[in-house]
Amino acid sequence: MAYQTSPYPEWSWSLSRDHMFHTCKRQYYYHYYGAHGGWLMTASDTARTAYRLKQLKNLYILLGDAVHTAAQKLLDLRETQQAYPDEAAVTRFLRQSLNNAYLESKKQDDWWAYPKQYTMLHEMYYEGELSPARVETVAARMPVCARSLLVSDTWQELARDHTCTVVEVEQLNHITIHDTKVYVKLDALYRRPDDIWVIADWKTGRISERNREQLSLYALYVHECYGVPLEQIEVRTEYLLDGICDRTVPIGEELDVIAHKIRVSTESMKQYSADDYYNRPLPEDSFHGIGEPSTCVMCNYRQICPAAKLG
């Protein structure tokens, strides 16, 4: 049977989708509609280009990905009762991950042919080189993140207490809110012997209020999916750069706020839909680009966006 795909992507919602929608409508269009089906041999040149540009990652994102992979590997070692690495080993893993990405980014033809098999750095694709200042900043963050990960409250608790039961690690799941599929991916979810469910989220950036929305959504997911009372949920944000663990217990009002946000956001997004059943968007030119240099310079789609302004 020949492989088939829908002409339009499945309708869904996530906080990252909401953020992109409110940042730039044209970027939102390319990411969620223009790139759809771009992996197919029958796709238009525009769709294939948008799909490839969608895969670009900058150095900061790659560092975050590498740290999350390191945390996942630690949890895997815990489950298989193997020895844990020290700070130097974790730092080497982070450095090697980014070095590999840099080397792959020098093979643009290979990446263009197989964008899912190779990594392409945003900086390398558009500038042809890495900014020395950015390289220095990211290099300085690696040992800090490695050390903070190993001494973090979450990892120390899991490493010491093997009666804690790990429930989820980096699994893409969803719940339905206001008839909309809402995607979540928890860094880690585990249950302690005292029947407290801990949601852990590793952050490699600075402290931000936006993270609270994300954690409220995670709490709503655990509450709805596993039937856990709110008073038995502990939400932790491990800010690795600052060495801070922010602990909160969700309250009903916070969950009501995020559910309301999803409804309002969904209504706004659907104003750009020509057909709700198929999730067919309005024409591309209905999605206006922000044309703001500080936003455009970091956008994956600036190559194909007529609104891109880089000063």
From TrEMBL:
Q: Which UniProt keywords apply?
A: ATP-binding, DNA damage, DNA repair, DNA-binding, Helicase, Hydrolase, Nucleotide-binding
GO BP term, example: DNA repair
User: What name goes with this protein?
Assistant: PD-(D/E)XK nuclease superfamily protein
Question: Does the keyword field hold DNA repair?
Answer: yes
A Pfam family (short name) is: PDDEXK_1
Entry-linked InterPro entries: PDDEXK-like_dom_sf, PDDEXK_AddAB-type
Gene Ontology MF term list: ATP binding; DNA binding; helicase activity; hydrolase activity
Q: Taxonomically, which superkingdom? A: Bacteria
